[in-house]
Specification:
- The structure is a single chain.
- The protein has about 70 residues and is an alpha+beta fold.
- It has helices spanning about 15-20, 25-35, 50-60; strands spanning about 10, 40-45, 45-50.
- The protein has one domain (about 5-55): Arc Repressor Mutant, subunit A, CATH 1.10.10.
- It has a 3-stranded antiparallel β-sheet with strand order 1-3-2.
- The chain is globular.
- The two termini are about 30 Å apart.
Length: about 70
């Protein structure tokens, strides 16, 4: 994955899908329509995301595991 400094100022839907590790563009569009993603802007028919708002949102919504390591359960 690219570092924060390598990401463009405005991310495309494809770049956002890759950043969030989603498998389809439709997942990203659904999240837009449900107001679940920050930094959305429209330029004509294109949808773009403000990199800094997205990265801030990711940092603010990250949750560390209580023990400091992953504790996956089935």
């Amino acid at each position: 994955m690219q570092s924060e400094n390598e990401l463009p100022l405005l991310l495309t839907v494809d770049e956002m899908a890759k950043l969030l590790r989603k498998k389809s563009r439709q997942v990203i569009y659904n999240m837009i329509w449900q107001f679940k993603l920050p930094g959305v802007t429209r330029v004509g028919r294109s949808v773009l995301f403000h990199r800094d708002e997205v990265l801030k949102w990711l940092r603010e919504n990250s949750v560390p595991s209580p023990s400091g390591r992953h504790t996956w359960r089935r």
